[in-house]
């Protein structure tokens, strides 16, 4: 299956999975479980939720993670400050990278919104360098938009 078809199917499945759930934590928990199960070559999928000027660990799948990340620090904190997706091919070359799992080599972080306000980020790590390409970014951006729309309506 090509990536566009994969993400179209994943979009459909995520939409169905969260459609009847209004609780934020339940929605995020099942969303990261779905992504962790379906995405290849990922070692961590989860959410960090914005509380003031700190991102606090939310639902995730993978090894033990950093609990708090100051806004502006690491890939996740940079995504919040810049209000845009961060796709990092080699996290070891990212100044200020916070290594929760030393096996991670690539990362993509997508802002999650309620209305126009960032409420957190979706963070996905891989042990494979250059794991996330343009198709992954587009597909994951569409999934983050589904989540944001659902949260905004919740």
UniProtKB/TrEMBL annotation:
GO molecular function annotations of the record: L-methionine-(R)-S-oxide reductase activity
Signal peptide (UniProt feature, chain positions): none
InterPro entries the record matches: GAF, GAF-like_dom_sf, Phosphatase_reg/MetRdx
Domain of life where this protein originates: Bacteria
Protein name: GAF domain-containing protein
GO cellular component: cytosol
Any Pfam family matching the protein: GAF
